[in-house]
Specification:
The chain is an alpha/beta fold. It contains 17 helices and 18 strands. The chain has an eight-stranded parallel beta barrel with strand order 2-3-4-5-6-7-8-9, surrounded by seven helices. A three-stranded antiparallel sheet has the order 13-14-15. A three-stranded antiparallel sheet has the order 16-17-18. It is elongated. The structure holds acetyl coenzyme *A (ACO), 3-methyl-2-oxobutanoic acid and magnesium ion.
Length: 512
């Protein structure tokens, strides 16, 4: 299979992302991880940009032994000298020279005619050749450059000893078909092209960086440039993890592979995100938090029966432990039962249906249904206290300048509905007074405790109460996304236990 070389520019083009600034220690940490990932070529920075960047490139050059280390340079002697200094001590150094070739850049930015561009690049290549055996030359904005001029620039770079010629789509302008064709044309028409490697460098302005890079491979590109997580100038660069996984997953189509240690991808992505502060969106291909997560019931059912129904790659490939089945309002019974098994519960069909109905009702109110939420549903469900009283509705009126007032409706085991209203010195007190009136029980609240089930603004509240009546003391527990409802549920739960206890005590007395 054809090998595609991977050129990582996270530390150079990636660092050009607005707001990103990596110090030497951070660049080194990323470079070590890139080496572990098996990156062939690491562009460590732009040494002429600042003394700090020169020092960082030098630290990377001295430390990394397995990958080629590259420094970027304009086609100017002073930049080339800076790269020379920065790459001292490198095992395998390479200079990356560039000059823009498109009409827009020639006219407005460089203020040069075609021939001046050609000769400026030639001079730079000749100067660099004295000090470097490996040179990459980039025709900046190649994507908008006349194809015949690009052929001339490439031929000149080969003549002057470049080992790689890069064809950047600097502004992410091209469509894959057009970009792939440039490579095909250069391969067919430039004399000596077989002596060098052709490289693709894409930007994601129209969201086509990965597609364009893959089109370049089909057109004959030998090397792909990009960054981890696709960070970079404006909309970013090609995300290398996307190219690597596309080649791996569709090797049948591309017939090409990289030397990357794919199981290091997830770790590398997390490190780059942490050190650059560029958060990876959840839906980002390959490395987003949801890339291997499934929420909808039909997908979860498919995944449980056979993973390939909804996964074209396995999470293990990129170093993740396993796919996630996320429980939410779109989930179905199969996934719910699987979660219960994971949590150590086996429910009968009827109990499962009841717990599932509660889960769906909760999922309607809450974004993430956590393990704690499910446990709380199960604990409620597994409790077999008969429901002598069922809480139907509660209404509470509260204002900081008025007396709290509550109205509750209880349904009795005999099927009667009892509605009562009461005031209280707080909302919970008003609810409890109304429940006392509706239940007809005289009890003392001897303990009340509230805590959150899991975290977050939409976490459920869990209330525990202890009620006392004569010699009897009972506990009650209630859970809800609303703490007043949780308080009411806990109270009614305790009343049910009290009624059950009194009935069983009466039964025992009658027997004796
Ligand atoms: C597509 C890319 O990603 S290219 C890389 C972009 N990265 C960066 O620019 C980051 C680092 N850059 C810097 O720190 C600074 O721009 C420096 C140190 C390189 C240069 O700073 P300054 O000397 O102040 O110049 P400034 O950035 O304002 O302008 C760029 C100059 O370089 C020229 N230039 C641009 N590209 C090239 C090139 N490849 N070869 C030669 N000259 C070039 C411009 O025409 C302009 O020249 P002028 O001053 O004669 O008009
Ligand atoms: C320096 C070059 C290769 C570049 O980053 C670009 O053209 O996008
Ligand atoms: Mg770029």
């Amino acid at each position: 299979m054809r090998k595609i070389y991977i050129f990582d520019t996270t530390l150079r083009d990636g660092e050009q992302s607005p707001g990103v600034n990596l110090n030497t220690r951070e660049k080194l940490e990323i470079a070590y991880q890139l080496e572990k990932l098996g990156i062939d070529r690491i562009e460590a920075g732009f040494p002429a940009a600042s003394q700090g960047d020169l020092a960082a490139v030098n630290a990377v050059a001295r430390s990394i032994k397995k990958s080629t280390i590259i420094g970027l340079s304009r086609s100017r002697m002073q930049d080339i000298d800076a790269v020379r200094e920065a790459l001292q001590g490198a095992e395998d150094p390479c200079i990356h020279l560039f000059l823009a070739t498109s009409p827009i850049h020639r006219k407005y930015k460089l203020r040069m005619e075609k021939e001046q561009v050609l000769e400026t690049a030639r001079d730079a290549l000749r100067y660099a050749r004295k000090y470097f055996s490996k040179i990459e030359f980039s025709c900046e904005d190649a994507g908008r450059t006349e194809l015949d001029f690009l052929c001339r620039m490439t031929a000149m770079a080969i003549e002057e000893g470049a080992s790689v010629v890069n064809i950047p789509d600097t502004v992410g302008y091209l469509y894959p078909y057009e970009y792939g064709n440039i490579f095909k044309t250069l391969k067919e028409q430039v004399p000596g092209i077989e002596k060098i490697q052709l490289s693709a460098h894409c930007h994601d302005d129209l969201g086509m960086a990965t597609a364009n890079s893959l089109a370049a491979i089909l057109g004959g590109a030998d090397q792909i440039e990009g960054t981890i997580n696709g960070i970079g100038e404006r909309a970013g660069n090609t995300a290398l993890e996307e190219v690597a996984l596309a080649l791996e997953t569709r090797s049948d189509f591309f017939g090409a592979k990289t030397s990357l240690e794919l199981t290091e991808i997830s770790r590398t992505s997390r490190l780059v995100s942490r050190l650059t502060g560029m958060v990876v969106p959840g839906n980002k291909a390959i490395v987003g938090a949801n890339a291997f997560a499934h929420e909808s019931g039909i997908h979860q059912d498919g995944m449980l029966k056979e993973k390939t129904t909804y996964e074209i790659m396995s999470p293990e490939t990129i170093g993740l432990k396993e796919s996630k089945l996320v429980l939410g309002k779109h989930s179905g019974r199969h996934a719910f039962r699987e979660k219960l098994t994971d949590l150590g519960y086996t429910l009968g069909e009827e109990q499962l249906n009841e717990a599932f109905a509660k889960f769906k009702a909760l999922a309607d109110k809450k974004k993430d249904v956590t393990n704690e939420d499910i446990l709380s549903i199960l604990e409620e469900k597994l409790d077999d206290t008969p429901e002598s009283l069922h809480l139907e509705t509660i209404y509470v009126a509260y204002g900081n300048e008025s007396t709290p007032h509550a109205k509750v409706t209880l349904l009795t085991a005999e099927g009667n509905t009892v509605e009562k209203e009461a005031d209280g010195n707080g909302s919970v007190d008003a609810i409890y007074n109304a429940i006392d009136l509706a239940s007809g029980e005289e009890v003392t609240l001897s303990d009340y405790l509230i805590k959150s089930v899991g975290r977050g603004k939409d976490a459920q509240g869990e209330v525990h109460v202890v009620l006392a009546q004569d010699e009897i003391s009972v506990q009650g527990r209630g859970v809800s996304t609303d703490i007043l409802e949780a308080s009411a549920r806990a109270y009614v739960d305790a009343l049910n236990r009290l009624i059950e206890k009194k009935e069983s005590d009466r039964g025992l007395k009658a027997q004796s």
